[in-house]
Write a structure and sequence with these properties.
The protein is globular, with a radius of gyration of 20 Å. It is of the alpha/beta class and 357 residues long. It has 2 domains: 41-253, Queuine tRNA-ribosyltransferase-like (TIM Barrel), CATH 3.20.20; 260-352, no CATH class. The chain has 15 helices and 15 strands. 45% of the residues lie in helices and 16% in strands. The protein has helices spanning 31-36, 46-51, 55-60, 64-68, 80-85, 112-122, 140-163, 180-193, 209-220, 237-245, 255-261, 293-297, 300-309, 312-339, 342-352; strands at residues 5-7, 10-12, 16-19, 42-45, 74-77, 90-92, 97-100, 107-110, 126-128, 169-174, 197-200, 229-231, 250-253, 264-267, 270-273.
Amino acid sequence: MTKPLETLHGNIELPVFMPVGTKGTVKAVPPSMLKELEIKIILGNTYHLFLRPGHELIKKLGGLHKFMGWDGPILTDSGGFQVFSLTDLRKITEEGVWFRSHIDGTKYFLTPELSIQIQDALGADIKMVFDECPAHDASKGYVEKSLALTTRWARRSKEEWARLGKNGHLFGIIQGGMHKDLRLRSLEQLMEIGFSGYAIGGLSVGESKELMHETLDHLMQHLKTPLPVYLMGVGEPEDLLFAVKRGVQMFDCVIPTRNARNGSLYTFNGKISIKQARYTDDPTPLEEGCDCYTCRNFSRAYLRHLYISGEILSSYLNTVHNLRFFMRFMQKIRNSMEKGTFDNFYADFLNNYNKDM
């Protein structure tokens, strides 16, 4: 069993799934409910909080923890992925990236140093280096140049983190696209720089699931470290199991909250599309045995009614359940690892998990 990750705002049992709170909020759910759901760590995003309301304002008001009323650990993404997704609104240089805000078109220049400064102002417990995330189908030549730039930016990120006082943890981000040799080169270069943990970026960005698994499997055969390993942006239960089996310990994804708002709800028997007519008069809870507020109090029929009616409460109740499912799922993984029965849990889960209920 991996030892807990220690932070100033609490220790985190691994493996862990981290709900995404991009703009300082996990959509539809207040921090008090996050605590009830036994969520230990959430994400914030440098790019979005930099643009609105601004990191200086958040710092003035006591940091992101106080600003959003959350006293648990926070990991902040560097903003790199968001900037690089703005293909038509940005220009990459050696020093950083010029980009135009997706909100109002204002021009900004984001550098590795500024990214770390923003994350430090937010008070993040875990910060990420500024990186470039190339498209999954980018040419090998482009990915190779991108990787070299990402390594230089990683070194600059660490230097800025040290200059500011080495507050919290700093994770490096392994890139290299779908090219196995470049992934290993990125790993070697980041290990040489040295970080508190190592994230795997550039997966689940449009490539096939088979290619994602193949790339991850190859990388994890060489990523031998006692430090936390974090797979960024990956989120379906079967993918989490695949990654945990290979040594990954941290995950984040918008899947549970986004799918909840779209009426797609997780159970240990599979996903339920609550909009379906079959649930119109179904008096049973969403999932028998689930201890979340939603399942303790409401029927599938009521949840369908709320969703079909476009009621705001639908997003809240659905999100509460999906987040609790992911927390229960990760707890079962941790328990099985502690007991030495993870392989049995893995097989049993996949045997019982029907993707289309």
